[in-house]
Amino acid sequence: MDLLDTLRGPVPPLAHDARAIAALAANPGCARRAVLDAAGVDKDLTARHLGFPAPFGQSRFAITRGNAFEDLVKDNGCAELLRLLRDLLGLPIPQVGYHDVAQVGAHLRHSHTRALIDRAARDSDDAGTFYDHPLLSLEIAGHVSYLEPDVVAFRLGGRFHIVEIKSFAMIDGQAEPAKVAAAARQAAVYVLALRRLLEDLGHDPGRVSHEVVLVCPENFANRPAAALVDVRRELAMLRRQLTRMTRVEEIVSGLPPGITFDLVRDDAGRPARPVAELTEAIGTVPARYAPECLSTCDLCLFCRDEARACGSTDQLGRQVRDQLGGVAGIAEALALAEGAGRPADGQEEIAGLLRLADRLRAECLTAEPLAGARLEALEGAR
Amino acid sequence: MSVLAALARLRAVREGRAQPVATVRHCHVAERPLVFIPLTLAGEAAAPLAAMVGTDPDAPRLLVVPQPRDRDLRFAFAAELAEVLLPYVEGFGKATETVERRNAEPYERCSDAPQIMVPNAQAAAFTGLLGRSTRFRRAEGPHAVHPSVPFLGRWLTYFADRAKYPGSSLLLTATDALGLHWATGQSGLEDANLAALMGWIDPPPGLTGPRAAQEAEDPLIWPPAGPATDPGFDNEVLAPAIDAYTRGPSPRAVERIREALRGQLEPTWRLMWRAAELLRALPAGASVAQRWDADRGSFTDFLGRMAEETPPQPRRDGAVAAASRLARMERAHAAFDVQRAYDDPLVMAEYRLTGEAFAGRVAAADPGHAEGEGRSRKLRPLVTVETADPVRLAPGTVLGTPDRRGQEAEVVAAGDGSVTIKITKGMGRGRTPAPGAVPEVGERVCYSSLTGDFQAAAALPEPELTPWTHGGPPPEYVPRDEDASEEWS
Q1: Nearest chain B Cα to A292, which residue?
Q2: Domain total in chain B
Q3: Same domain, B250 and B372
Q4: What is the 3-state secondary structure (H, E, C) of B240-308?
Q5: Which of A19, B59, B99, B418 has its CA 20 to 30 Å from the CA of residue A120?
């Protein structure tokens, strides 16, 4: 792990939150992101220093609304949540226990969560219990990341459910699919962390349900509504990605010696590393830019600029890339289309297709239009 | 996305400018569209913050909710929007034409229909949400709203629903409409930014497409086209202005908010009109008028239902209504694909690329060729076309042609640079084909297996007969007080 520490420089590694871990699964092929995340590099600050600040801002209004909604759901020992769960699970839950893990000091929260979950798992008691502000952990490439879910683990009948509170609305039973998907990816991280914890304690990890409870405002009001979301697919994706992360060491050991992403912060914590030097260092780890990165990764604008500079077809999106059948460069693809370049082995088919496409475009855009199109246009005018 | 469209994007990168992917226009652009640019408050489901709306590029109307969390102000906004939208929409009901039909009674159809233009898909979705949150309201009772509000809600719902039909132009989404005609040198994801898309298509003088698109990503130069506002603007400009209004709701405080929002909306307002202009400049495809006829018909129907004061659209479709809606959308989609290909050689080229169509010159023709003897003798003119296209059509495949619509042909043999077809329909009833019905030697023709086969409407039971497998007959919608007083916070 020394290598990763060298890469990061003399600062504590940045903790991953569930969102960051979930985002890892979004672009599993990106070595750059895998290395930077494994080393716990502050990508946001790095991007800023490189002159490509991430385009993510959060509006004050959204934050206020999100917090207010969460408070509403959790107030009075999660009274509102209990009402929802009664309806959702169709259970006559008479009463539930409530443990606020945040009541102990921050440094104790994780061990306290462990103890509470352990006790709950041993307990044969059937009564429901909420665990608010639990602190879970997940090992990412040898580093332990602590996850502070704004969620509650709910136990009933020996099974644990992750409850995820989100402030986007569920209107007439439907919410925006992209937002639900993001919430599911995030919740899957918590499910995995809780399962690992149970396993670690010698309990059956299957006692953490793969169905998470998603709590959202209903329609246009502030009133919460709940729905069960199956996160098995997200869990499988996440697991696969985390196993791949172990390969980070391979990538790192292949880097030129002495490489570091250290920002060389000054006394005030401001990065002082020459930008050109840092750009070069980051450039040694290949990225796999895709336009989807623009909504998930802090370094997206840096990588996009790089993809543009080297004329990569990645910048046009996966759909275009797929159509081009593995031709990676824009100039290369255009040369094939225009017959100026010789197709490499295995490129004959796509080259033929591109040449045909080029001929058809030229024919349709310059040559005489088909007689029919003219006729119909005339008729239309009449 | 096809190789053809991918190639257009590659070219756009090299040329630094968007490239055409259509040679004619595939959507209707009204003479006087109503441009509607809504903004919402971040973090809320459907809290209107502002809108710029109007039919005159030089006279936009700015509507603002100075405290977006105030329910009464939201309804005041809705009433104000209704004041602009309803007269515009209902005005089209005044002039009608009589449409004659074969085997059916003639009916009246509005001579023209309204067209609402929004910047992007999110704005179209918000139009639906705003409709959903206002259509169940009532003008009397404990939570009375202005009488125009529920009507506005029904209309907005109608427009948002109609936008889901491929080929409909009643609610036109600018980014989608432009994307149908131009390919940029950026990804589809980035094309969702109207200013960036327009930067590629129509860069300001002195700027290249990519440069203009890059500027468009700076919210200080180009505020986002909404409905989400720029978080930086929210935090630094809007929040303090709203706080000031909350402390003292004076006209000055309102004016401060209005000016801030006007600055956010005006650049998009100009872009929208420019986008309409660019689209209008393209020659209309042959089927555009036909689809607009269908839009006008649909609009006329809905106008009639509004006059009869039928209840608002339900929250969710019943099983039969949902299935029939889906079937109609699928039919509209299939028809739209065929029509676009027939109207536009560049779209047809995508089918030629995959071997489902071919174009070339007629090498030989036997117009008098017939099959059968005596009474069963049928005229089947034979045509051989020389083509360089990679034809992948089996003998017997039914073909249509954009050159002679209504004509049908069949592949006889295909291979090695030439295709022989026989014409089976649409060449007249005589012993010899009607003049001009059979292409002559040397003529350029295009045939495709893509035919506008009319799909019969799905056979669905009446809603009252919904089988139990689909939940049984849906309960009839009865307006309830709860619907009218639904919270909107």
Answers
A1: B189
A2: 2
A3: no
A4: HHHHHHHHCCCHHHHHHHHHHHHHHHHHHHHHHHHHHHHHHHCCECCCHHHHHHHHHHHHHHHHHHHHC
A5: A19
